[in-house]
Amino acid sequence: MRFLRRFSFGRTEREVVELFRRHMNTVKLACEVFLKALETDDKGLFNQVCELERTGDRIRREIALKLYGGAFLPAMRGTLYKLAETVDEILDMLEDTAIDYLRLNLHLDEELREMCVRVAKINVKMSRDLAEAFDGLKSGEGLENRTVKIRTREKEVDILRNRIYEKLVEREVSSYWEGKILSDFIDHLVYVSDIIEDAADLIQILNVSLR
Question: What pLDDT was estimated at residue 75?
C-alpha cells in the first residue's frame, strides 16, 4: 500500500490510520442512519445519530492523543489533526440536524420531505466517497476522481438547497421559533456536504505532502 510505503511507519502510525478509517466509517453509518430516520420518521434512529456523534468524538480524541504523542512527522500532524476535527464536525452537524428534527417534532409536507431526503441521499454518497478518498492515500490511485465526485455532488446539494429555500418561503409557521428551528434544520442538513468537501480538500493536501 503506497500510503504505508511512503514512510517507515511504526505501530502508532498504523493505529492512527486505522482510527481514521473507523472515523470515516462512523460518518458513513451516521449518514445512512440519518437518511433512514428521515425516510421513516423514526425518532429512535435520530437518537442513534446522536450516539454515533459521541462515538466519533471519542475517536477524534484518540487520534489527537496519538498525534501529539509523536505519531507521524511534525509537518503532517497539524493537517492530520485538522482532518480529524473536520470529520468530527460532519458528525456534529448531523447531530445538530437530528436534534432540530426532534426538538420541533418536524412535520414536513411530502414535497419538502422528498427534497430533504434527496439531500440526505447525496450526503450518504459523499460520505462513501470521502472514505474511498482516504483509502486512496494508501494506493495513490484514483484519489482525484473521488474528490471530483465529492465536489460535483456538493454542487447538486447547492441546487437542492435553493429549491428548498424557495419552498420554505411559501410555508406558514405557527411561531417564530418553529420557523427558526425549521430553517436551522435545513441549514444544518445542507451544510453536511460542505464539510465533507472541506475534509476531501484536506485529504488532497495530505496526498501532496506524501509525494
Answer: 79
* The CATH number, out of the four listed (3.40.640.10, 3.40.430.10, 3.40.50.1240, 1.20.58.220), of the domain defined by the range 8-209: 1.20.58.220
Give the other-Cβ count within 10 Å of 47's Cβ: 15
Instruction: Check: pTM over 0.85? Answer yes or no.
Output: yes
The span from the first CA to the last CA of the chain, in angstroms, equals 14
Cβ-contact 192, 90 below 8 angstroms = yes
Phi, psi of 71 (to 5 degrees): -70, 140
**Other C-beta atoms within 10 Å of 19: how many?**
21
Task: Give the Cα separation of 38 and 56 in Å (integer).
Answer: 21
Cell numbers of 60, please? 477524534
Q: Which helix (H) or strand (E) holds 119?
A: helix 110-139
- Helix (H) / strand (E) element for 170: namely none
The answer for residues whose C-beta is within 8 angstroms of residue 140's C-beta and 6 or more apart is: 2, 3, 207
What is the identity of the amino acid at 170? E
Instruction: Provide the grid cell at 152.
Output: 460535483
